[in-house]
Design a protein that fits this description.
77 residues; mainly alpha; 4 helices
Length: 77
């Protein structure tokens, strides 16, 4: 499997701009409701981004999502 050195994702899994924006905001102390307001989307849309990233990264919690993003240099803290 080919892995992108920048994202740590396999070559077939790419993040949309919205997913990447959500990921960066999820790595903050903001609630999902605050994230939705900042992204100008509904709470359900944020739930969709979260679930999509959980599947792509094979994690099941926000902590797992944040840890994956940090380990793979996907976010700057």
């Amino acid at each position: 499997m080919l892995v992108d050195d920048k994202t740590g994702l396999n070559a077939f899994t790419k993040l949309s701009d919205k997913e990447l924006n959500f990921l960066q905001l999820a790595c903050s102390e903001k609630t999902y409701i605050e994230i939705a307001k900042e992204m100008f989307v509904s709470d359900r849309t944020v739930d969709g981004y979260r679930e999509a990233l959980f599947k792509k990264f094979n994690v099941s919690t926000r902590v797992g999502l944040v840890m994956y993003a940090i380990k793979n240099d996907m976010v700057q803290l």
